[in-house]
Write a structure and sequence with these properties.
The structure holds two protein chains of two kinds.
Chain A: E1 3-7, E2 10-11, E3 18-22, E4 26-31, H1 35-38, E5 40-43, E6 47-53, E7 62-67, H2 80-87, E8 91-92, E9 99-100, H3 124-131, H4 136-141, E10 153-154, E11 161-162, E12 207-212, H5 217-230, H6 232-247, H7 251-304, H8 310-318, H9 328-341, H10 358-374, E13 394-396, H11 397-408, H12 415-421, E14 434-437, E15 443-446, H13 452-466, E16 469-470, H14 471-478, H15 482-494, E17 498-502, E18 517-521
Antiparallel strand pairs in A: 1-2, 1-12, 3-4, 4-5, 6-7, 7-12, 8-9, 10-11, 13-15, 14-15, 16-18, 17-18
Helix pairs in contact in A: 7-9, 13-15, 14-15
Chain B: E1 6-7, E2 13-14, H1 30-51, E3 55-57, H2 59-62, H3 69-72, E4 73-74, E5 79-80, H4 83-95, E6 99-101, E7 109-112, H5 117-130, E8 137-139, H6 140-144, H7 157-169, E9 173-178, E10 181-186
Antiparallel strand pairs in B: 1-2, 3-7, 4-5, 6-7, 8-10, 9-10
Chain lengths: 536, 193
């Protein structure tokens, strides 16, 4: 949406055309011509009242934002360049000389994490502009930071000369008198340069008018209302305020409070991230539904055949995405990619309430799992490799479980049920898929070529034919993961079909890091002694 | 690389399996390993008998340039026996009574029994009989360092003592304390009388 700004009843010439973005905290203006210089951001915390004008004839719709007057005549929008810098460098506390690490949040970076004394070197304007714009009384009690560290504050009770960054006396804990500094003409460097700063600013109500020349005003206004109602910045500020309150006390108590508050923050973060997870689950459900839709349509179009049946035309008319894509290759491609994601469903998942009997329930589950693994719906065509199993003959159990539950989308199967279903699987699959557990505890499902005996025969044949091989070479030959190949080979070694040759026993170059294991066909089994005969 | 037998410079015929690289690796599979261990034991004892070696130390596999190089190292296939492999070989030989730790209470060095003490006893007795020294008192030194080379030359005292023990149990020898140590007197034995 295009917009122009009107500041204090004058139109802002620099902000004639651009895009408005809105977040929960700020309003961003990105200029279409000069992005680097003319864009700015406005904290929503300053907005007290909003107005919406629908537009009439030639005048475009407008949104008016009435703004509070901050305590000092400083900026409203805080540029990113001023806020970001101090938080990301390490600094040394002047009181305890602790070297504070960088990367803390902007509020935490202003306070020494060891002793809790506020950092004195942070320039005050940034401090005020970034985090405490709406609380002038609080900022008054915190000693304003002077750039002259020699000024000390005499305690009114014990006359001890305190460091200016302390708020209570170091000796007797009496609150210290605040020293007002006259040089409080703060001005942030990146405040919108265009904003007229006239002396009568204090009297004229401050406001911004946003004119929507290309529409989008309604959407913007409702989003704005929502953000203002949400007051996301207040939560943040409360956190900062309490933290600040805590850190005004120094000593062990202060440290304890810092620890406490950081624990609290961690907990909050954790909750936030769990919320994200829930959102993801919702999305996953949608995705599954989409896959189901897609599959249904594909099935429908496939059954209707290439001749344009009424059903077909109805599909083409209502879904634009999928339409002439009923050509077999593309349909196959879509299906196979769905299958690879595990999002393949020929029907709705079986759930417990559909089936009364426990035994039957497991049977049905096994049937469903078999379908997912081998794509039973297409087995008639003789095409292979579209199920979850694909062209691989062996799959770790966790992958199967994950893929199955992804395919189900709803009513997920717990691992315990999954394990009960697995023994039934072989009767529903062709070729039968069986379960196998390796010595290390790794469980896999596999097709007949990957039974221990079959693999051992194949491996010893391979070794006899093409000489000793490393595990990696075997894995390449068998097209399986190296870890899995290792397990399989170990099992074969247990069976005594092969033996190992460790490169560590090399006379030269063996003890290095590149020592590798080579597998040999078992040369000991068929060996008969042909060495020195012991007749002395 | 072809797997074939090989004759060492000292004239010992190494079996073909000695040219197979896996032979020098400690096998994990118990069955395979016991086969390999049997072959190793046979090579070691055979070589010891061939060279008349009585002691085997783990150090022999750790360093080169000793009596055991010919069997513990195979330069042709660039393989050597690792010390820890030798340790396990030695312990299995001790278990099978084919060697004994000497000195006792350690596992780094063994005396090899390429003849068992009973066999040594027979050899000793027949040697005494053939050299006509029955009923005379002999010192251990006279037995192990005879003026004429004998099967008992340089036999370790420990083994000799065990052999004499075997003989004295069957009444064919008697340990006698003499002025500077111990002596032994041999009898024709109950079998002859």
């Amino acid at each position: 949406m295009d917009e122009s700004f009107t500041f204090s009843s004058q139109k802002s010439p620099e902000h004639q055309s651009g895009t408005i973005h809105l977040s929960t905290h700020r309003l961003f203006y990105i200029d279409s011509q000069q992005q680097a210089t003319q864009s700015f951001a406005l904290d929503l915390a300053y907005v007290t009242q909003t107005d919406h004008y629908g537009g009439l004839f030639s005048s475009s719709p407008k949104a008016t934002l009435y703004l509070t007057t901050p305590s000092s005549s400083d900026n409203l929008g805080s540029g990113t360049s001023t806020t970001a810098v101090p938080a990301f460098e390490s600094w040394e506390c002047e009181v305890c000389a602790y070297r504070n690490p960088p990367g803390l949040s902007s509020s935490a970076a202003r306070i020494c994490s060891l002793c809790g004394v506020p950092r004195s070197a942070v320039p005050a304007p940034e401090l005020r502009a970034t985090s405490l714009p709406s609380s002038p009384p609080v900022s008054g009690t915190i000693t304003p930071v002077s750039h002259d560290p020699t000024i000390s504050i005499a305690c009114s009770a014990c006359t001890f000369l305190n460091h200016p960054s302390l708020s209570v006396c170091e000796i007797c804990s009496t609150p210290l008198p605040t020293v007002k500094h006259s040089e409080r003409s703060f001005s942030a460097k990146s405040a919108p340069a265009s904003r007229p700063r006239s002396p009568d600013d204090e009297t004229v109500p401050r406001m911004i008018k946003i004119s929507f020349r290309k529409g989008g005003d309604k959407a913007f206004y409702s989003a704005l209302k929502r953000s203002l109602k949400g007051k996301a910045w207040e939560n943040n500020e409360r956190g900062i305020l309490s933290e600040r309150h805590a850190t005004t006390r120094s000593g062990i108590n202060g440290i304890l409070r810092v620890v406490e508050s950081s624990a609290q923050n961690r907990e909050n973060d954790l909750q936030d991230s769990l919320q994200d997870l829930e959102a993801l689950m919702n999305k996953a459900k949608e995705m599954v539904r989409l896959a189901a839709d897609l599959n249904e349509k594909l099935t429908a179009s496939a059954s209707s055949g290439p001749s344009a049946s009424p059903l077909m035309t109805s599909i083409t008319s209502d879904s634009s995405a999928l339409v002439p894509a009923t050509e077999p290759e593309e349909a196959t491609f879509i299906r196979s990619s769905l299958a690879q994601l595990g999002l393949q469903m020929t029907n709705t998942p079986v759930t417990l309430d559909m089936i009364k009997d426990d035994r039957k329930w497991f049977d049905e589950l096994a049937r469903e799992l078999a379908g997912i693994l081998q794509d039973s719906s297409r087995s008639g065509n003789g095409s292979t490799g579209t199920g979850l199993l694909g062209e691989r003959g062996i799959l770790p159990l966790d992958e199967v479980w994950g893929g199955w539950n992804r395919a189900r989308g709803v009513a997920l199967i717990p691992p315990s049920t999954f394990l009960q279903v697995i023994p039934l699987l072989s009767s529903y699959t062709d070729p039968p898929i069986r379960h196998r557990t390796f010595a290390s505890g790794l469980s896999v499902l596999h097709t007949p070529p990957f039974t221990d005996a079959a693999f051992a025969a194949r491996l010893s044949g391979l070794l006899a034919l093409s000489g000793p091989k490393t595990t990696i070479e075997v894995a390449q030959e068998e097209k399986m993961a190296v870890g899995l190949a290792m397990e399989m080979i170990d099992a074969v070694e247990q069976g005594g079909y092969i033996c190992r040759d460790d490169a560590q026993s090399k006379i030269t170059g063996g003890s290095g890091g590149g020592a590798e294991l080579r597998w040999w066909a078992n040369i000991f089994e068929s060996y008969s002694w042909d060495g020195h005969s012991n007749i002395s | 690389m072809s797997i074939a037998t090989h004759t060492t410079p000292s004239g010992y015929l190494l079996p073909s399996i000695h040219s197979a690289p896996p032979f020098f690796t400690k096998q994990i599979n118990p069955t395979t390993r016991s086969i390999a261990d049997d072959h190793w034991t046979r090579i070691i004892l055979g070589y010891a008998r061939h060279r008349r070696l009585f002691t085997l130390r783990v150090e022999d596999a750790e360093t080169s340039g000793n009596d055991w190089d010919e069997i513990f190292r195979n330069e042709r296939i660039n393989r050597r026996l690792l010390p820890d492999h030798l340790v396990s070989l030695i312990s299995s030989m001790v278990t099978n009574n084919l060697a004994v730790y000497e000195p006792p209470k350690q596992t780094r060095s063994v005396l090899l029994y390429w003849r068992r003490p009973e066999e040594w006893a027979d050899v000793l007795h027949s040697w005494v009989a053939s050299t006509g020294q029955m009923n005379t008192i002999m010192t251990f030194y006279e037995i192990t360092n005879p003026p004429v080379e004998s099967p008992l030359s340089s036999l370790p005292i420990v083994i000799l003592r065990k052999a004499i023990d075997v003989l004295s149990k069957s009444g064919r020898a008697q340990i006698i304390a003499i002025a500077d140590g111990e002596g032994v007197r041999f009898f024709p034995g109950p079998s002859k009388t």
